[in-house]
Amino acid sequence: MNRPAQPADIPALIHEATVKIDHALDRYYTCPEGSPAELYEAMRFSLLAGGKRIRPFLTLEFCRAHNGDEAAAVPFACAIESLHSYSLIHDDMPCLDGDVLRRGAPTNHVRFGEGTAMLAGDAMQAAAFGIAVGNDLVDSAAAIEAVRVLASSAGPDGMVGGQMLDLIGEDRLLSLEELLRMNMLKTCRFISAACELGCIAAGGDIAARRRAAEYGESIGLCYQLTDDLLDAETDKKEKTTFLSHYTESEAREYAVRLTRHAKELIKDDDKDGVLAALAEWLLTRKA
Length: 287
What we know:
The protein is an all-alpha fold. It is built from twelve helices and two strands. A hairpin with a 2-residue loop joins β1 and β2 (105-106).
């Protein structure tokens, strides 16, 4: 069912989706009897610590856009959020970014130690695939296809490959081509996968999935451009960002073009305007 015709309140809609997703994640990550409680505590610490929940929101919204049952999209939304959270745990560790705070709280390895943090990330990665393939509200072919999309988005030609390029960029300035590739893999692939998973949950065709994936790439790159602009005055790390190659005005114009392209891609699917409104919200966000 479509929402009433009115301007989309994106923060309110994301909050509404977050409540559903957090409730489902709480169930998926309740420690079974006999399992190590310490591991589940570490996973839940990162997974249920807040965050924008944009990826699972996109999964639910693309399912809705293609007239699917939202309940069928929830397991896929939890799977992509599990992968995203695992990547953050590992990204924060001393061998990569070495961050000690995330969202104002100690990072996982600071709170639980490096060994537990590494294992928590590993466990969440494996759990993501189990959650997706166990989705009994879609047929088995759709569940298997969802796992394929998740694996592709996370692997050497996805997020992990992007992390590798980011690590290389710690030692030298990346070319613009390398920087674009890094962000397409590290940031955009999970966002693109989230969109595509919603189409899979709804039984969308290949053309719909391609539009969704390209929309995800466009808003993902816009998201990173906006992050680089927001971090310009506070980020003291010596690493390549878009502002290593563009002026601030050039970066903003690039983000505007990406947003325009994203909205054009899904204009026929986006019946209630939520996906277009989300793209605009990501462009103009302040945090």
